[in-house]
Amino acid sequence: MRTSSTIRTRGTVKRTTRAAAALAAGALALSLTACGGDEDSGGGDGGDEGGGAKQPASSVTLPKLDGESLEVAAVWTGTEQENFKKVLAEFEKRTGAKVTFVPAQDPIINFLGSKIAGGAPPDVAMLPQPGAIKQAVDKGWAKPLGAEATKELGENYSQGWQDIGKVGGKQYGVYYKAANKSLIWYNAQVFENAGAAEPKTWDELLNAAQMVYDSGVTPFSVGGADGWTLTDWFENVYLSQAGPEKYDQLAKHEIKWTDPSVKDALTTLAEIWGKKDFVAGGASGALQTEFPASVTQTFTGGDQPKAGMVYEGDFVQVNIGETKAKVGTDAKVFPFPAVGDTAPVVSGGDAAVVFKDSKAAQALATWLASPDAAGIQAKLGGFLSPNKSIDSSVYPNEVQKKIAEALVAAGDDFRFDMSDQAPQAFGGTPGKGEWKTLQDFLKNPKDVAGAQAKLEADAAAAYGG
């Protein structure tokens, strides 16, 4: 199965050089270092007032859709879902259409299959993997974007972000939401008490972790109940250690998971996952900790939380917002440290894909490709857009603003989440494939060879040999 594993520019494959990766990582490091220390958490409701500057007057043209009804399916819950509904409400206001949000379950491809089999597909679905977009196209479910949506996309997105939404040269996806998945968030008071500094290399990260441990706090919180967090850990280590070419090859299964580069990455991960008392609750506790709890337990309890650090993307701010901690003062962030020559820049995202080729569905896709739509959710916090036409002043705090600016400035010099590029059966299904094997590896990080063998067996089956 061929997946959208590389970023293309002007029709040619763009191989990110180590220098380009270093530049992007350096820009991120610089921007985060420059962030102020008195910002809001970005987890509030925002509303129409405050929370950043207002967007400029609308430039997107939408048709009148009075009397039309649409359904949008996504796996989003909680604050994320509520904020997205405000974006849909503005679409309703501008067009006269009625939009219903349909909560979906992971894996969303299976959910959509059931809806389609029952004759009730949603008009638009938010797909979290390029591999899922390709599956939807291969099954004949997804519809190409129309001229207006494609035009809006071309005006507001870099070529790389356009291309990961393409299948067979046709545009199917609008990457409405992005994620910078190369960040480690930390409890500032814990670091201060421990005398630890923000690390730039893997060895410095291990040293900082030991200092946090010696101060009486467990270094890391890991949301192991959600297997996707573990794939993100692996991808950052692998990209930095093995390099972008190997990363692309493994993403396409052009090299096997039994390759020595995978052994090296798993062995490196075991330096944290296998270190006694370095993970809150140990392996068994981590495997019972869902992602939101992995964040909140890092920022509750003052200077004696359950852990001093938590790895994950910019969207961590949504969950920090559920605590009393403030981003930029109590909760700070640094780029994922370099394991090899350069620090990694791994991104992910959710794409709007049309499942009913109607005027209303295409209008919604056009809306979601606009800076007007993304600006609404950006203002509410816990959200990052690859839309380069957004005025970054709408982001509700300096940390989020700088992360967003670094993502846009990186252009095409990033790598998309590897597991999201894989067939869903391998890279995106709870209890199966990569998610399950890395959960087992967290439980037994000494079994590197066994994890490699299982990963390869599952990958070979999912990719078709």
Textual characterization of the structure:
This protein is an alpha/beta fold. The chain has two domains: 12-39 and 183-335, Periplasmic binding protein-like II (D-Maltodextrin-Binding Protein, domain 2, 3-Layer(aba) Sandwich); 69-180 and 347-416, D-Maltodextrin-Binding Protein, domain 2, CATH 3.40.190. It is 45% helix and 12% strand. It is built from 21 helices and 14 strands. The strands form four sheets. Strands 3, 4, 5, 8, 13 and 14 form a six-stranded mixed beta sheet that branches. A four-stranded mixed beta sheet has the order 10-11-9-12. It has a two-stranded antiparallel ribbon with strand order 1-2. A hairpin with a 2-residue loop joins strand 1 and strand 2 (12-13). Helix 9 (227-242) crosses helix 10 (244-251) and helix 9 packs across helix 11 (260-273). The radius of gyration is 21 Å and the shape is globular. The N and C termini lie close together (9 Å). Mean pLDDT is 88; it is low at 1-23 and 36-57.
Major beta sheet, specifics?
6 strands, mixed
Mean pLDDT: 88
Low-confidence stretches: 1-23, 36-57
Q: Give the CATH H-level superfamily of the largest domain.
A: Periplasmic binding protein-like II
Total DSSP E strands: 14
3D shape: globular
What fold name stands as the CATH topology of the largest domain? D-Maltodextrin-Binding Protein, domain 2
What percent of residues adopt helix (DSSP H or I)?
40-55%
How far the N terminus sits from the C terminus, by CA atoms, comes to 9 Å
Proportion in β-strands: 5-15%
| CATH class bucket of the largest domain | Alpha Beta
Q: What is the total domain count?
A: 2
Q: C-alpha Rg, in Å?
A: 21 Å
Please name the CATH architecture of the largest domain. Answer: 3-Layer(aba) Sandwich
Summing up helix and strand content along with how strands pair, one would put the structural category as alpha/beta
The number of helical runs is 21
